[in-house]
C-alpha cells in the first residue's frame, strides 16, 4: 500500500481538493484507493491510500 499525505496551510477549498485528488487519480491507475479526510478532526490534512492490487 502507498500512502500519500498532504497538509494544507489552511482548510482546502473545494477547488484545491479537486486539483489534489485529480493528480492522485492519475497516479493510482486501476488500483483501489481510499481517501481519508475528516474536516472535524483535522481540516488541513488529507490522506490517500493506494492499494497494490488492481480493482477486480
What does this structure look like?
- There is one protein chain.
- With 56 residues, the chain is an alpha+beta fold.
- The protein is 27% helix and 39% strand.
- It is built from one helix and three strands; from the N terminus they run βαββ.
- The chain has one helix spanning 14-28, and strands spanning 2-7, 31-36, 45-54.
- A three-stranded antiparallel sheet has the order 1-3-2, with no helix packed on it.
- β2 (31-36) and β3 (45-54) form a beta hairpin.
Summed up, what is this model?
27% of the residues lie in helices and 39% in strands. The protein has 56 residues and is of the alpha+beta class.
How do the strands and helices of this protein lay out in sequence?
Layout lengths: L1 E6 L6 H15 L2 E6 L8 E10 L2
Antiparallel strand pairs: 1-3, 2-3
Strand-residue fraction?
Answer: 35-45%
Report the C-alpha radius of gyration, rounded: 12 Å
Structural class: alpha+beta
The CA-CA distance between the termini, in Å, is: 16 Å
Major sheet = 3 strands, antiparallel
Percent helix range: 25-40%
Task: Give unreliable regions as ranges.
Answer: none
* Sequence of secondary-structure elements: EHEE
User: What's the shape?
Assistant: globular
Number of helices: 1
The overall pLDDT average reads 88
Count of beta strands: 3
Q: Taking strands numbered 1, 2, ... along the chain, how are they ordered across the largest sheet? A: 1-3-2
